[in-house]
Amino acid sequence: MHNRLVQIVTGLLCCFSVPLMAQPIVVNPAIKTASISPNMWGVFFEDINMGADGGIYAEMIKNRSFEFQKPLMGWKLDNKPFREGAITVQNRQQANTNNPRFIRVQATDVAGSVLSMTNEGFRGMAVKKDLRYDFSCLYQHADNQTDIRMQLELIDTLGKTLGGAIIQPAVSAGKWSKFTASFTATATNAKAKFRITFTGRGSIDLDMISLFPEDTWKKRPGGMRADMIQLLADMKPGFIRFPGGCIVEGFDLNNRYQWKKTIGPIEERQLIMNRWNVEFAHRPAPDYFQTFGLGFFEYFQLAEDIGAKPLPILNCGMACQFNSAELVPMDQLDPYIQDALDLVEFANGDTNTVWGKKRAAMGHAAPFNLTMIGIGNENWGPQYVERLQAFTKAIRSKYPGIQIIASSGTDPLGERFDFLNQSLRAMQVDFVDEHYYRKPDWFLSNASRYDAYTRNGSKVFAGEYAAHSDSKQTAEKRNNWQAALSEAAFLTGLERNADVVQMASYAPLFAHVEGWQWNPDLIWVNNQQVIGSASYQVQKLYALNKGTHAVAISRNGAVMAGKDSLYASAVVDANTQELLIKIANVSATTQTLPIDIAGVKMQGKVVQQTLLQHPDLMAANSFDQPDNIVPVQTAVLCKSKTFTYEAKPYSFVLLRIALKK
Fold first, then answer.
1. Residue 324 pLDDT > 80
2. Separation CA 123–CA 108 (nearest Å)
3. Which residue among 153, 326, 378, 434 is the active-site one?
C-alpha cells in the first residue's frame, strides 16, 4: 500500500500581508449555498479489466467448474505415458443446467506413470511465504473400489514446490461431497501455478476446484482480495454502484446480468461469458467469464462493510444498443420488472418474505437497507423511456421510498441527451445519471456546467466520468496528472452545485495491468500490488473532505470556474466546525492568491494544507513509483483570516481551517 500521506510538520507558505491591488478570493462560511449529501462521493464497480474474477474476488483457480467456452481453458494436463480417457470432461446437461460440466479422472498405479493437471490462475497466482491457502473441491466416486490420492502443490515457473498437501478423499459412494484441505506456502512468488497430481488406482469425479488465500477481506472464507477492498474503504465512499456498467445490458439479452442467478450456493450460480470477452479486438480476453462467486449478496455485504449505500443497477429489458440492440417486447417485460421488485425484497424484506428468507439463509438476517435502484445503464431513445415508465410505476406503487435512477445515455450533450434529460425530468425520476468520458479540456470548460441547472425536480448523478488524456491508450500512460488535475477542477463545480449534483463516481474502478480492456482507471493492480492513480488521490481527497454545506466563494464577484486558470469551491463541516477550501491551479505558473475569510472567526492561526502537485502533466503513479503523485500535508501558520496563498503550478490543494463556534 503506497498511498499514505507524506507528513511535514510545519511550513511558512502563506502568511504575508495582502497586496493592496490584488483581487482576493472571498470565502464566507456564514453563507451556506447548498447542503451536501452524505452520499456525495462514491465508487462505481464494474466487472471490466478483470475487476471481479482475477480481481477483487480472491479465487485463484481459473475455470474451476469447467464451464468456460473451452472446458479445459486455464488447465494443462500431464498424462505420461499417454492413456486415452485418463481425464475427460463430463456433462450432466439437464441434471444440472447451472453447472453441468465436471471432470472424470481415471488413475492407474503403473510405476513411472504421471497424471496431473495444472491451473495457470488469472495471469498467474500471487503466493506469499508463510500464508495459509485453503483448497476445496466437490467430488464423487463412481464406485467404492478406489484408493486415489491427490497431491496438491503450488509451484513456481520452474516447477519448484512452494507448498502443498497430500489428500485422499473418503469414498463418496456415488454421492457428491465436499473435501477441504489447507497448507502453508514456503516462499513468495508472483506467477505461481497450482498442480494436482493423481496417484493410486480408480476413478474420481471433480468439480468446483477452488483455492483461496487466508488473508481475504475480513478473513472471510471464499472472500475478496483485501488490499483492493482496503483502498475503497480508505475513501469512505458514500455509495457503491454495482455490478456495472455495460455488463448489466449484456451483448444480447441472453448475456445480460441476472441478479437471481448470482445468489445462493456458489456451485449453483450459473457462469456466463463476460461481454468484455469479445468487445475489443485490440484487447482480446477469451478467458474472461463471470463465475458469480462475487454476486449480489456479496455486493450488498461489501457496501455494508465499507459504510457505503448500495446502488444496484438492473437491466431494463434492453441489451447494449451498440451491440445487438435487442429489446424485450413491452408485453413480455413483466419478469424484468418483477426482478426489480424482488431485489428490493431481497435487500430489505424481513425473514418471513420469500426473498428476505433467501438473504437470511445466506447469513444476513438483518436488511441491507436499500434506498435506491438504477434502471438501465447508458440506454437511450423512446424505447428506453417507455420501459422505464413501466418499471417506475411498479416500483413506486409497491416501494414508494425507493429512489429511481435513470440513464441519460452515453453522452453529456446532443439531441439524445436533450431528449432523455427532458423526458426523465418530466417523469420526475429521482436522479438523472449523466456520463462523461472526455478530454481534459472538456472538464475544464465544463466546471460551470451545473451553475444554471434548475434547483427543482430531478437531481444529477454523475455516474461515470474520467478525463481521457491525449496520450495513447497504453498501460504505461494509463492515468496521468493532466487528467487528474482537470477532474479536480471539474469537481469544484459539482461541489459548488451540491444542491443539483448529489452523487458522483469515477469509472472504471479497477484494472489488472495484464488484463485491462479500458483505460484510464482509478486503481491498478497486478498479482501482488495495488496502486491508486493520481485520479484516485483526487477522488479520495474529495470523499474524505466533503463537509456538510457548500458555502459562498468568489473572486471579483464571480465563481472561480476557469478565469486565470483557477477553479475553487468551499464547504464547511458542521460536525468538526471547519472550513474546507479546494483550489486548482491548472496553469504552468505560481499564482499568489489573497484569501479573505469573511463572516466568521478562525480558531487559532494554523491552516492545514493538503497538496497534490506535479510539475509534469504527463506524470503518473506506477508500480515502480506508486508515490509519484500523493498528498503532501503541511501545517501552515497564518497571522490573520486575511492571508495570501502561493498556488503552485499544476496543483490541487485543500486548505482546512478551524472556525470558532
1. yes
2. 32
3. 378
